[in-house]
Amino acid sequence: MTDSTQSNGTSAPYRDPSVYAEFSKKWPSLPQDETQWVKRAQEVADILALDAVQRDLENKSPRAEVQLLKYAGLLKILGPQKYGGGEQPWSVGYKVIRKVAEADGSIGMLLGYHLLWSTTATVVGTPEQADRYQKLVIENNYFIGGAVNPRDSDLKIQSSGNNIVFNGSKYFNTGGVVSDLTVLEGVLEGTDDHIFAFVETRQPGIVFAHNWQNIGLRLTESGGVKIDNVQVPWKDALGWNSELKKPDPEVLTIPFASLLLPTIQLVFSNFYLGIALGAIDYATKYTNKNTRAWPYGGDNKEKATDEFYILSTYGNFHAHLRAAITLADRSGEQVSAIYAKYAGETATRAKLTARERGELAEWVASTKVVTTDTGLRVTSGVFEVTGAKATGLKVGLDRFYRDIRTHTLHDPVAYKNRELGRFQLLDEIPEPTWYT
Known about the structure:
Elements: E1 3-5, E2 11-13, H1 34-49, H2 52-58, H3 63-72, H4 90-103, H5 105-117, H6 120-124, H7 127-140, E3 144-147, E4 156-160, E5 163-170, E6 181-188, E7 194-200, E8 206-208, E9 225-233, E10 240-241, E11 246-247, H8 249-252, H9 260-289, H10 308-342, H11 346-349, H12 354-381, H13 398-407, H14 413-426
Parallel strand pairs: 3-6, 4-6
Antiparallel strand pairs: 1-2, 4-5, 5-9, 6-7, 8-9, 10-11
Helix pairs in contact: 1-3, 1-4, 4-5, 4-9, 4-10, 5-9, 9-10, 9-12, 9-13, 10-12, 12-13, 12-14
């Protein structure tokens, strides 16, 4: 099979998941600690790397690659052990995202977004909802997509008896085409209140546009989606009182409820970093094997690997990437510490202060600035040390730059610089927004 038929009859080409059937029993149990989880992610990355260039050129829906993530257990890394999850902290989850992104930025991004969406009920839901959805997702090994682009206000919600009804569209969604569940978000009619809810993806009211034709992250299925009369029981409106049909103030008006934003911003930074690390590794192999020394410089060398400017460039990239890794890891530890201290019962969540949340956001913002700057510089700069032939499509070095350039436009990094400037100069923590 080579296409995926939607409820409206349209279809999108995809790779048959059976291409990874040999791995269905390769990993009979989940890893037990950070070292084992990173090793598992490396094994997946090694598989993805074998044909990453060809898959990028084919631009097919990544059904097979999502199935590979399922086989490897990577979708379960954050889930509670009582339901069959790995119960690892976000700091480990971020390293796994990064490792997968080294081989394939698209699949690293999909894994990162899934882990964020799988945390949604933990952050904005009631403790009962959080437990219920963790059980559902982990026990079924579900992959989650999301139609939650906050710049689009086209998704409306109406109350209808015991249900809420979603109607409208989103210009972007991530991974929905290949997902089991989709997170929807919209504004309740007559209010300014937002509602998040999980829905089954495969239903007539969810119709994907199959229009993701961008230069990078081509395998993320980030195109548009139309939502037509999708009904959700009020009891599944995350963080809402289903009887009063109002937001639960003990859940949604506290700093903890805004943790999704710094959490996903650090997801971004880690797959940026993974893409950049993948680029320098890929370029290193190419330079060692294919790049020729420049014969007209006046200080001629026999091998490209003896060229001063090539050694200097690789050395500088190496140093900046090491610094970015250290910062990303430190920020991941900050995220993990916040969740370890405050996730759980409502009373525990309420203890997180605005200052603590704000300082976490600035750790994350710092990482976003550094990984964006470094990632763009490395993925474009590697061409200077590989040579003209490295621009060939069959080489595939360009995919790293295209991937990181595409997503670093998600929200302007200039605003992160300004935010950090106010923190440094005025000791102001940022107000929580859809991007902070």
